[in-house]
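Intended use. Records like the one below are meant for learning the mapping from a protein sequence to its folded structure. Do not use them to infer anything beyond what is encoded.
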Amino acid sequence: PGEILRDGVLIEWTDTNIGNATFEGSARELMRVQLNTRIHPLGDLVFNPAARSGDTDWRVLYVGCGDGGSGESRQAIRTNPQRLDTMVGKIHRIIPDLQAHESSSVVSENGRYRVPKDNPFVATPGARPEIWAYGFRNPYRASFDGPTGDFVLADVGEDTWEEVDLVRRGANYGWGLCEGDHNTGTESAGCTDLQTQTPPLFEYHHDATNCA
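Structure written out for the chain above:
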């Protein structure tokens, strides 16, 4: 919902000769996300490095997507990161290779990637099936922890609080009702009333040395 100013585009590049420093292959658009403003576009991309052939996460891509600036708006688009029918403010989980996981996934709406059937909102009417977790502002860095396999990401705060999140399947991380574990103060129902909100693993306050 709302005016669209930019698109975030995810492209798969295939090099035919990885033995040199020149790109000699082809490019294929996988995903295009409409963004309300010029900020908070697509973020980090990560595969689970512990996944092996036969695992459900093998060659499955996690895509961080910012809120496109919607979550700090005072207009109706403010709710977009909390809406399951929009792509912004989410972590998406997709399979870039159309030939992989065929029995455990479905082809995406645009026909360019596959969506795992075990994504949390596949069966939710009106929801985007790509969504793995939601309620993010600008998830710009993500990583899987080697010893534990935990999926951890950093999400940029708006005014006061930066946060690090332990990402769980289907979880809601609160933006734009919450900045870190704190009510943004713009809604009657904020962090303290959001029963489904998952608190950050860690948060830190802005000062002279702390920022994204």
